[in-house]
Amino acid sequence: MTDQNIDILARTIFGEQRGHGKIGMQSVANVVMNRTAIAKAYTQKYDRKHPLYGDGTIASCCKMPWQFSCWNKNDPNLEIITNANESDPVFADALEVANDVTNGVLDDITKKATHYYSVKLHPEPSWAKDKIPCEIIAGQYFFNNIE
After folding, report:
1. Which candidate among 30, 46, 67, 70 keeps its CA 20 to 30 Å from the CA of 40?
2. Whole-number Å distance between alpha carbons of 95 and 101
3. Which runs of E-coded beta strand occur in 4-130?
4. What is the number of structural domains in the chain?
């Protein structure tokens, strides 16, 4: 795993779940890893990047347009994640989770989820209509049945 992939993963989980502790960060990291695995298989099979999940690298998965809102140009989290460093103990936790997930130390607690959204979001995203979450973790609904 490259340092860039771990750094981008840490910034993504920091941007998406920094207020929900390590378990919340782990759940988002699991989603990234699940999407990355799908993208890698797709890229190997079709010799092109996955339209939603990127080229099979963590960095590509995290930075695909409109997939993780913290990377959107208009999102206020973008400046926060760009400027984060290890002097922030929560970002240091995000780096630890990113390292542990990529090294296989932490299991997938999301049941192979590829999508999630906040329990506070109303109305639900269109992709979640009539879907049942496979897990609820740290204030997020997780889904492993989105096509």
Report:
1. 70
2. 10
3. 115-118
4. 1
Q: Indicate whether 22 belongs to any domain.
A: yes
Instruction: State pTM to two decimals.
Output: 0.95
Is 114 within 8 Å of 31 (Cβ atoms)?
A: yes
Report the C-alpha gap between 135 and 147 in whole angstroms: 17
pLDDT digits (tens, 9 = 90+) for 46-79: 999 999 999 999 999 999 999 999 999 999 999 9
As given in the structure block, the two tokens for residue 141 are 């609904």
Q: What is the pLDDT of residue 1?
A: 58
Quote the tokens at residue 29: 């990291």
Could you tell me which of 124, 120, 15 has the C-alpha nearest to residue 76?
A: 15
| Token pair 């995290």 in the structure block, residue | 62
For residues 35-54, one letter each, b for 16 or more C-beta atoms within 10 angstroms of the residue's C-beta and e for the rest, the string is bbebbbebbeeeeebbebbb
Q: Which domain holds residue 91?
A: 3-108
Residue written as tokens 């960095």?
Answer: 59
Q: What value does the mean pLDDT of the chain take?
A: 96
